[in-house]
Amino acid sequence: MDAVPSSVLQARGLEKNIVGPSGPLEILRGIDLEVGSGETVAILGASGSGKSTLLGLLAGLDAPSAGEVRLLGKNIAELDEDGRAALRSGRVGFVFQSFQLLPALTALENVLLPLELNPAHDARSGAELTARARDALDRVGLAPRARHYPHQLSGGEQQRVAIARAIVDEPAVLFADEPTGNLDAETGARIIELLFGLAGKATDARQDRRAALVLVTHDPALAERCDRIVHIHDGVLA
Amino acid sequence: MSRWRRDRVHFLRDTLREWRSPELRVLATALVIAVAAIAAVGFFTDRVDRGMVQQASALLGGDLAVVSDAPLPEHWIDAAQDRDLTVTRSAALPSVVFTPEDDSLLVSVRAVDTGWPLRGQVELAGETESERVRQGPLPGRAWGDGALFEALSTGPGGSIDLGRLTLALDAQIQVEPDRGSSLFDIAPRLLIHFDDLEPSGLIGPGSRVRYRFLAAGPPEAVEDFRSWLTTELQPGQRLLDLDDANPELREAISRARRFLGLASLMAVLLAGAAIAVAAHHYANQRADSAAIMRALGASRNRVLRMYFLRVLTIAAIASTLGLALGFGAQFLLSAILGDWLATGLPAPGWRPVLSGLAVGLVTAAGFALPALLRIGRVSPLRVLRRDLGLPPVSVWLSAALAVGTFGALLYWQSADPALAAWVLLGTGIALLVLGALGWLLITLLRPLRDRGGMAMRFGLANLSRRGGLSAIQMVAFSIGILALLLLAIVRVDLLEAWERSIPENAPNTFFINIQPGQEEAFADRVAASGLPRPDMEPMIRGRLTEINGQPVSAEDYEDDRARRLLEREFNLSQADTLPSHNQLSDGSWFAPGATDEWSVESGLMERFSLKLGDELTFRVAGSPVSGRITNVREVDWDSFKVNFFVIGPEALLAQQPRTYITAMHLPAEKEGEKNRWLREFPAVTAIDVAALLAQVRQVIEQATRAVEYVFLFTLLAGLTVLYAAVQATRDVRRRETSLLRTLGARRQQIRNGLLAEFGTLGLLSGLLAAVIASVIGAVLATQVFAFDYAFNPLTFVFGVVGGTLGIGLAGWLGTRRVLDQAPLRVLRGPE
User: Fold this and answer.
1) In B, which residues are within 8 Å of A88 by CB distance?
2) Mutate which of A71, A74, A92, A117 to test chain B, going by most B C-beta atoms within 10 A?
3) In terms of domains, do B450 and B304 share one?
4) B307 and B214, same structural domain?
5) What is the ipTM of this complex?
6) How far apart are CA B596 and CA B546, in angstroms?
């Protein structure tokens, strides 16, 4: 395995507790994790092991009960909700199990979204951003479907749009939550090729701009493709 | 516990729990507003009705009354007194009074005899509180109403000149029991003693005097006198009993009930739309529970019954709240229109309560049932396969139930099947057109998505994705805004445009009651003041009694104006040549020397379904005068020149008693001259058109305020449609907001998206309403009233700005909670 490059993500002593109907419940305990720039890491665990909760904490979507997460060098506990959103904007990409495309927007508009949300692009023209979004769609092979709405696309196509959306702003970190969970085996395999191809190893030539990939899955075969696998069991990293 | 009781306990517990469901809260809110609108109108008209019944005797002025255009026979007084009845009489006519400063005022004079009022009391304004008396002014004295003192800018204590008399003006009337409706008798009142009428010189042949004979006493004696009177009555004399008390007021109330009732139904219709949207969403939300119940063995009917009863129970609670709100709201309606009745309104009865509840339940059932039927039809297999949705809602069933429910409510409110059918058809067409236009506007917005950045794109995309729901909301807002624009702006524009259309030098003053023999002297007097010598038109009063030999009466006609024309006397005129400002539209002018021909105005021909050759008989001064219609005239009533419905040749009418009338443009500087003429010719009455228009406008404004008030409920009901739509899309919005936050959106960006969505919805609704209001204004002006209509940009300013800000703000307030949505939600997948 390659040496770990400078880290984009660090978690120290991470804990997450909630109060359920039958009292307090520990979801995550004592999680320490570091992800280097351009590294691909699989978080492998069974259903209910706490892997999606961990992903939420790592991506700054939720606040930990204890411990610290540093995303791209920033301690997310020190940021408010808008601050965390601003941190993610343009630097963090997501691919979800259930695609999460906005049904009112076309494929192209969905891909355009992260570019428009990123204040760094405020000075750029709409045409320039649209050209970038079109290029991203082209990279996932869906340029001809740019004007289609999500309900007009198959599950695999929707996930490809979601991947285009995740990579369009060339993020530093890409989080993927069971990206093949809602797809059949064949389509899932193609999506994985695409995901790794765009985010990970296939872009070796552009090492400096390679995104780190944090992949949550229960599929050991999929996890095998990553640089590193961390196992999670009952809220604790094995 | 028996199963029956257990079921009831479960039902109550579940229903109370359901109260927390946002969808049912929308349904309840919509119903509260709908029932409040219906109840406000219902309580108000019920109170006026009750007031009418309670005050019928006072409103009539006695237990029995006879009205006539001619003095009533003296021997009636003896006949009544023989039966132990008390009697009195009065006479009313328009005239002019002068102040010592020589200001003049058109008034409605009423001369009352000793003994008046037989029923009810007169209320006079006192220093601190009002004083109730059972008498009129003594001879030589006069009382005026508030309007009279206001117009003269004075208070009791001075004197006024009426005809040849100078009277001490010594009290202000607050309530005149049998005055009738202040809405229709708009000139200020001057009450004098009957004995002063003759010496005043106001009465001459052909004067417009309305006499009233009043009797009161024990019911048997009144009945006996009534049977005696029926054999005595001559044409032109009409016996009134308690049901006839104040027919104008009855008619006004019946119209108000119908019109305000129909206006309040617009609120019910929009509430129905909100209920349909909420029920649809409620059905989707309850699909899982229903599927589990079905899987556990509940029959379709049982599931359907359970949900239907829940909705009806919530509807009953909401309707009760709506009734309470409506009861409070009617106080304001009473404040706006309350002076229709002389004295305070009594408390309402139970009828509005029952009808309000019925409207609430019928509306809930009619608009929610199609959606609820879907819950009954949910497949139990859904417990295994969540992708099995509810069966689609039947568009035909929904439409049929909505039309049926609304049609039934329309019929109930109007009690007129033809009117209900027309309103239903008109509403249906209007909704379809509005819906289609709304849809079109939403479609036209699509290209703008590429131009406005993320917030605009997101807002517009939401509008077009939920095209159906957006169109429903747009229709609802447009109706609310349209109603208010029409009442607040277009109505004022039309009145102003009409006033502008009157030529500068159009006659502004009418002089009536110019006595025969004085017409030349009066014309000379006018000419001597440096004004053009006016044309004197003879005016002969006659009652239409027969058409083609068949007797006619008001009861033969449905049309209100036809009825009124038959109840009073026509003003006939005589001319051997066609008046220069009239145009012949059919037939040919009178043959020279013709003795039995009539020339009739075209509108009157239509109103009485007359045709050339028909024979009309008028009773003039007690004798029949007949002729055939030989020509039809077009009359421009807006010219303010003297015009007549019916004109006869000189040979036909030369022997009939008459007065003269003339109209002229009186420059402001000649106002003093006018007063001098009127002093010289005391029987003459001047009618100032501008003052009359001001009074008419005041009446219109009072009525408009009441209608605007009722339409506010329509706007509120429109907002419940927004509320329903916001609730129906709540979960989707939360998910989308959560996703946007995950992708890095700041609160401000999401807020801008919501503002763009609802602001655009409001803008389009306001635009649609403004366009339609302008078109209606233009069509009314050019096609109905025939004058130029100047487009008013204010219609668009208020419609568009008001719509954008109002709906934008309301929408944002309704959805702002989604801004607090934590981004984590997206990881949990679709719900």
Assistant:
1) 742-744
2) A117
3) no
4) no
5) 0.77
6) 15
